[in-house]
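Quick illustration, no need to memorize.
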Amino acid sequence: MATSNSAPTPDNDTAHNNLGYLFLRRGELDRAISHFETALKIRSGNTSAHYNLGGALIETNLANALARKGLLGEAIGHYEKAAKLRPDYGDAYFNLGSVLFQQGRIGEAIAQWQKALPTLPNDSGFHTVLGNAFLKSGLQKDAIAEYEHAARISQQDSLARNNLAWLLATSSDASIRDGNRAIELAEQAVQLSGGKDPTYLRTLAAARAEGGRFAQAVAAAEQALRIAGTEGKSGLANALRDEIALYELGLPYHEHSRSGGF
């Protein structure tokens, strides 16, 4: 990006896109949107095929700004335009899926993310997100496959390990639960995250309880409760109190709904 203080030339779509991206990073969403729209207006006069990648990038940037401003319907339209310009542009599908997921349109989100899959085969974060969507849809075995894949891709991915451990510890389906594997994964997640994340400690407690280690489960849950209280996470704290009561009775915690607890 140029460092000049002068305004971009009227027909310089690249400069407008760069300025828009700068304002987007700063959180100045209205200014970002204005520059992205100007860049697209300039590009609308050129239909050359080699412009498609740049156009798709600008459409995605504009959609990102609109989504951050809460204008999800408008964002969706621009993500769709980006995907139409470049069907092999994975970011457009990924971001479109994320907005649809925010709207509760889980099936549509999964469909978009699956289109992004060929371009993001080694992105552990993407596979974790896809696993979360499968879990929300009640497809626990599909979620497990995605979490396992994410964990294999990255030895440093604490989130995939945590989410998988929670599912293996708390699933309402007894055929899915595996306490020993859940403990292994939860311990890795806690270690990778620095040991101070109350959500990960909650998962470790649930895993230990599923593995029959109730005293250790109480200890982990109480540690999580202290941190959650300090951080003002009252909902998490209330859940932990209920779970501690179960562990003190020698009972594991199992989900009764189809969605995960993370």
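The chain is about 70% helix and 0% strand.
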